Amino acid sequence: MQQTRFDKKTETVKTNHTNAGNNGISLPAVPVLQQKQGGVQPIQLKDKVDNPYPQGEAGLTAHHIIPQSVLTNVLNKLDPDYQVKVMANSLPDFAGLTLSTISSANITAPNGNSFSLTYRDNNIDTPINKNTMVSDLRLKAIATVKFSAMPDTEQAKISFDGSDWATFSALYGRLKTATSDAAVKAEGTVGDNADSDESKEKQGKLKDMYAAFYQWQSGNLFYGSKRYEEDSSDTLDEDEKYSNKDAEFSRQIKEIYTVLKDNEKALKLSPDKITEKINQLTTLTKNRAIAKYESGDFILISNTRQLEIMKGIGMANRMGLDKTGSSIHKQAIKDKIKALDIHAVLARAEGRQADWQPNGHPFVGLTYNKNGTICTVSVNGGPGTAIEKSNRFKLPDFKTAILDSVNTAMNF
After folding, report:
1. Which has the closest alpha carbon to 17: 105, 113, 161, 127?
2. DSSP state, 263?
3. What residue ranges of the chain have pLDDT lower than 50?
4. If DSSP codes are grouped into helix, strand and coil, which group holds residue 160?
5. Under a CB-based contact definition with an 8 Å cutoff, are residues 248 and 232 in contact?
6. Coil, helix or strand for 11?
7. CB atoms within 10 A of CB 16
């Protein structure tokens, strides 16, 4: 490893390239360092589009639990040394990394040069990237092997941006414990000149590595089919509870989100307190496995009747432009249905009133025989269920009729 040294000079480094994310969207790359003569300025991160943990299955989308924008905005309120402390704590353990993880993070310097992964076998160098990890059987076999399980013979063939396995492992360990911007700058200094183009490139890559794992903490992600958020995209995505099925985790991450969201536009807490709160999050998430995607847990809204039911139960904002084609977690729909006030239907039936529209959309149709002793219940034009009145209508009869009709229509 080349000699590095601390250099307290400041500099200006800006990005002038774009990153192409996993969804094919090009956005400005992360401005990895913004400093100027006369005073250190906070690093201004932008949302990094490259996910280190792609699932690889067609149609799957990664969803942040705490929005990426909230993580970025809060970090941008901190001074550089605090930012480093936060991002250093977000690095997952080296043992849990894979070649796929490093490659997918698309670590890039401000000048556009990428962090290179190389596999040397029989004196022939092969780049390690998403294409070669599929086409080259040697690389395919080790692409997702955790570093803790990587055989020594394979370690000897892999280089990380020009460094061998042991050198990069040691560097990564120091980055995990870095507490100042100067320390990271020193780690990226090549030779004796911290301001050389070569040094700036390496420093930029280190900062971009930080950004990738801070913004894409594995435990802050879950996977599902593309679907519209219940609320705006800058709020907590509570659908994670259906994938993680971990009430204590959901409680903790919601509590952390509430604090971070409250400090997103302007810090109300001290930098020490905010750093403590973010570190609480990254400690919770950085090594947490992403919940396995279960396709059977989701339903594709594929016809008009299903769409109308979604409107009726108050989930129209999931659909986007009133179209079919979105996938929704089945349990999210079931929970919404359970929360409906079926007593309101019963009351309408007792008064021989017309259809029930709990969310401004026709949902439960109510029709009666001539003397009002039989009420026929239908959900969005589906098959009707006749409920006979003895002395009074009974709530369980209406609940069963409605839920059975919904379950049939939604193919539960």
Report:
1. 113
2. T
3. 1-41, 321
4. strand
5. no
6. coil
7. 10
Closest to 297 in 3D by CA, of 329, 332, 258, 253:
329
For residue 221, list its beta bridge partners: 64
d(CA 33, CA 80): 9
What are the Cα distances from residue 292, in Å, to 169, 224, 245, 298, 344? 28, 10, 11, 13, 39
Identity at 91, one-letter amino acid code? L
CA 61, CA 224: separation in Å to the nearest integer? 6
Report whether 318 contacts 347 (CB < 8 A): no
Residue 117: strand, helix, or coil: strand
**From CA 73, how far away is CA 87, in angstroms rounded?**
14
| Residue 37 Cα distances to 31, 40, 43, 128, 281, angstroms | 17, 8, 14, 39, 34
Rama region for 285: left / alpha / beta (φ>0; ψ in -120 to 50; rest): alpha
Whole-angstrom distance, CA of residue 190 vs CA of residue 186: 9
Percent share of the chain, pLDDT over 70: 84
Q: Which two tokens stand for residue 73?
A: 């905005």
**CA 90, CA 385: separation in Å to the nearest integer?**
55
Question: Cβ atoms within 10 A of the Cβ of 11, count?
Answer: 16
Q: Are 96 and 146 in contact (CB under 8 A)?
A: yes
Q: Which of 53, 47, 54, 11 shows the shortest CA–CA distance to 29?
A: 47
Sorted by sequence, the CB contacts under 8 Å of residue 197 that are 6+ apart come out as 111
Spans of all domains in the chain: 18-285, 296-409
Phi, psi of 10 (to 5 degrees): -105, 165
pLDDT tens for each residue of 76-132: 999 999 999 999 999 999 999 999 999 999 999 999 999 999 999 999 999 999 999
Question: 19: which DSSP letter?
Answer: E
Tens digit of each residue's pLDDT (9 = 90 or more) over 229-285: 555 568 999 989 999 999 999 999 999 999 999 999 999 999 999 999 999 999 999
What does the CA dihedral 266, 269, 275, 276 come to, rounded to 10 degrees? -150
**Single-letter code of the amino acid located at 50:** D
- From residue 191, how far is each of 9, 167, 170, 187, 314 by CA, in Å? 16, 16, 18, 11, 62
